[in-house]
Design goal:
seven-stranded mixed β-sheet; OB fold (Dihydrolipoamide Acetyltransferase, E2P); 3 domains; eight-stranded antiparallel beta barrel; mainly beta; 8 helices; binds manganese (II) ion
């Protein structure tokens, strides 16, 4: 019987889904004038164990169905996987509701789109249709994949038309816009002010309910932050590219780069670490939305689009931006012991990968990235361990000496640094400029491969950091990109 598999998977007493009696399969139970005409389709968004979209085409009195993990593609260049599932009764075309947990397909089902289709071809291994829905419009082909044996349930779905007019795929390889260190701007009203977060920058692309997180230097760090997956589920089929900062909070609720250290170097955190050091994604910009690039929109326009997404979850948030009133915002962050603020020109465009004066960071604490170029052995209580790190920044002729840091380390940090630096040893100084003899004398040189974060009071006239204090390592910035700010 056509719906035997469908019925076998469900208990009508336990699920709100329509479960027609045996023998009544060809009858339309919905009372819906549409279903039963032979040409209806429906796409249901299904938040089961894994989010997917069920695409169903009416055929011979049933709904022939595929589960498509990323939904119907809008880009003809990207085919999406589709898994054929059991035929569903026609009445399913209007079903929306909550399938109880523990039941087959447990989770929320909503109708994402429905309409009619024109049939171009229906073969056992290939189905070509033109969909006419309110959200999706266009020619699609479902084809069984060659890797799957004949009769396998592995299919692909391909859009045969070009992308919808004006629709652009998510940009790949975009780098975040960077801020210049500076002071409060004089034309206060022309600027928006945001708290400066003390974490790592992240571009978050969401497509088909799946997210991909890219670090500032373009590395895929998605697997490091599994608690953010729910953001993809919340956005569902909305295609979005977000800009933000991943932070870990202190007991007092302040973002802290030092706390994040426990997470940022771990590619696949275990349950214990996820519990002890959870992260938050702080979202402050949206760069692409539903097929449209927002890079050329103003800050104010992008911010309105971001607010419209209503992103709010246990592990993600959109903190406020203040229009004007920079001095008060700066003072408030000082009083709360925060790092500082970022002032953003309200009429400015988003310039990927560029450090511009349209974004200015105004900091209470001076903080910079430096390259580790060597170490000096410790003395006294630190004998046998690292005493201080020799630091560098890139200059016109290569790596320049920027001083040394001997404070801010815990015993664990020193041991960790020792282990990381040992294999990087090299016989000669990596600096392009001379290092003062006092510091060069007992130095152990290393390849300039690690980037550290330090607080300091000022740059001296000869280009050294005064009173630097070690904060942690960062792998989201390449050593070649570390310059004097
Ligand atoms: Mn499903």
């Amino acid at each position: 019987m056509p719906l035997d598999t469908y019925r076998a998977k469900r208990d009508a007493r336990r699920t709100p889904e329509p479960v027609p009696d045996t023998g009544s399969t060809v009858v339309d139970h919905t009372g819906d004038a549409q279903a039963g005409r032979g040409d209806t389709f429906v796409v249901q968004e299904h938040h089961a164990t894994a989010l997917h979209w069920d695409v169903r085409l009416e055929r011979d009195g049933v709904l022939v169905s595929w589960a498509v993990p990323k939904g119907l593609p809008l880009d003809p260049a990207t085919n999406h996987l589709a898994k054929q599932t059991e035929d569903h009764p026609l009445a399913y075309a209007t079903f929306a509701g909550e399938i109880p947990r523990g039941e087959y397909g447990g989770g929320r089902v909503t109708v994402w789109d429905s309409g009619t289709y024109e049939l171009e071809k229906w073969q056992p291994d290939e189905v070509k249709v033109v969909l006419h829905g309110s959200r999706v419009e266009g020619r699609y082909v479902f084809f069984r994949t060659r890797s799957g044996r004949s009769g396998s349930d592995s299919w692909m779905v391909h859009r045969m038309d070009g992308p919808p007019p004006g629709w652009a795929p998510l940009p790949q390889d975009l780098r975040p816009m960077l801020a210049t260190a500076g002071t409060l701007p004089p034309d206060d009203d022309a600027w928006a002010y945001e708290v400066k977060w003390d974490g790592v920058r992240a571009l978050v692309a969401v497509d088909g309910g799946r997210l991909r997180i890219t670090s500032r230097n373009g590395n895929d760090v998605t697997s490091s932050y599994p608690e953010l997956r729910g953001l993809g589920l919340q956005l569902g089929s909305r295609q979005v590219l977000l800009d933000g900062e991943i932070v870990a909070l202190t007991a007092e609720g302040r973002s802290d780069f030092g706390v994040l250290q426990a997470r940022m170097h771990v590619a696949r955190p275990g349950a214990a670490l996820l519990r002890s050091t959870p992260v938050q994604l702080v979202v402050f910009d949206v760069l692409h939305l539903e097929g449209e690039s927002l890079l050329d929109r103003t800050y104010d326009e992008r911010r309105a689009a971001l607010d419209g997404l209503e992103l709010e979850g246990e592990h993600w948030q959109v903190p406020p931006a203040f229009l004007g009133g920079g001095p008060a915002v700066l003072e408030a962050t000082r009083a709360q012991g925060l790092e500082g603020i970022v002032a953003k020109r309200r009429d400015s465009r988003y310039l990927p990968g560029q450090r511009t004066d349209c974004w200015r960071k105004v900091k209470h604490v001076r903080r910079t990235s430096v390259v580790i170029a060597g170490w000096k052995p410790g003395e006294g209580g630190r004998a046998g361990r690292i005493g201080s790190l020799l630091l560098g920044v890139q200059g016109p002729g290569g790596l320049e000496y920027a001083g040394h840091v001997g404070t801010g380390f815990s015993a664990a940090t020193l041991a960790d640094l020792g282990a990381r630096l040992e294999p990087l040893r090299r016989p000669d100084s990596p600096f392009a400029t001379p290092v003062p003899r006092l510091h060069a004398k007992s130095a152990v040189w290393v390849e300039p491969a690690l980037v550290a974060e330090v607080d300091y009071t000022e740059w001296t006239r000869d280009g050294r950091l005064r009173h630097p204090s070690y904060k942690g390592l960062r792998d989201d910035i390449d050593p070649e990109d570390v310059v004097r700010e």
